[in-house]
Amino acid sequence: MELSQIKPSSSSSTLPEKCMICNRTAHGFHCDVATCKGCKTFFRRQLLSGEEAKCVLRKDCYDLTKRREPLFRCRPCRFQKCIYVGMNPLALNFQARTTAPNCEENSFKTTENLIHDVVGMLLHLESKVEKFRKCSYNPDWKEIDKIQSLLSSTNKLSMADSYGEITGWPIKSDSRVPLKHNYFQTYYPKSKHWWFFNLLTLTEYVRTFWFFDSLDLQDQLLLIRHAVVGITLFHISYFTIQRSCQYLTQPDGSQHPHNTMPDYKIVSMLVDPMYRLKIQNEESLLLKLLFVCNPVISG
Ligand SMILES: [Zn+2]
Ligand SMILES: [Zn+2]
Q: Which GO terms describe its molecular function (predicted)?
């Protein structure tokens, strides 16, 4: 399905005029994406129904490079496009919805169903996180002056599509160049400042959970401060063992921090236990969630 026409604009803080799914007038950001009211409601209903229908046509009913108007009757293609443009199911408040009285959309009756759906959403979120780490967005840490301004801006995870995937990875070991201000230190021009970028990524990850917005600013800051470093170390450790690497590895193939650094032992302490326990993907997703839903954060 050719969907190149729906790449979001590079500035996601201003609302695009058109719904990224059907091209009608956008109404606001819903689940991290600019959509019309119709597509917003559609996405929520579709997730709650759990319907798994298949397109009976050519699977391109919402490909606006092939037609001027989408075929609204095709729900599978519409839902596919919602996912493709990056709508985030975790932004929906499922728990509240499923326990609300007289809720016509109440279809998550059992705990088992609920867990199944939460895992599905976490898998989807994980793919967004990895896409973001591999995108060409590579800000200078000085650009983001305060965590408060980050928290009040549009979540950056949905910007990965507009930036596109970075090229030239994995980086070659002979592509190091000297730093401008210190000739004896070198860096890879195509690499990211991984400490900063990973902390930024996992901060945005925490912000995607529906309850985050309901916290006041002080509690948001408290949660970020207590959770994000742990989640970041957990994330890069699991990324490392998924690729069967010996040392902490980043998406560009670089080792960061390098195992010769004095703090390496501390930041890599999760790698060996993860190998030993043969931790599975779903387990890692749920364990990471515990960092966010930690009831004993003091303050
Ligand atoms: Zn729409
Ligand atoms: Zn279709």
A: DNA-binding transcription factor activity; RNA polymerase II cis-regulatory region sequence-specific DNA binding; zinc ion binding
Which ligand is nearest to the Cα of residue 74, counting in written order? 2
Q: How many CB atoms lie within 10 A of CB 135?
A: 20
For ligand 1, the distance from its centroid to the CA atom of residue 88, given in whole angstroms, is 15
Residues with CB under 5 A from ligand 2 (ion): 55, 57, 61, 74, 77
Q: Is 4-87 assigned to CATH 3.90.1300.10?
A: no
179-221 confidence digits (pLDDT tens): 566 555 556 667 888 989 999 999 999 998 878 888 899 999 9
CATH number of 132-292: 1.10.565
Listed residues: CB within 5 A of ion ligand 1? 19, 21-22, 24, 36, 39
The segment(s) of the chain belonging to CATH 3.30.50.10 are 4-87
What tens digit of pLDDT does each residue of 9-56 get?
Answer: 434 456 778 999 999 999 888 887 889 999 999 988 888 777 778 899
The rounded Å distance from CA 19 to ligand 1 centre is 5
Kindly give the distance from the C-alpha atom of residue 20 to the centroid of ligand 1, in angstroms, as a whole number: 7
CATH 1.10.565 in the chain is located at 132-292
Written as six digits, the tokens of 140 are 């200078």
Assessment of whether the complete model's pTM goes beyond 0.85: no
Q: How far apart are CA 44 and CA 34, in angstroms?
A: 14
Longest dimension (CA), the chain: 68
CA of 16 to the centre of ligand 1 (A): 12
Instruction: Please tell me the distance between residue 287's alpha carbon and the centre of ligand 1 in angstroms.
Output: 35
The DSSP bridge partners found for residue 107 are: none
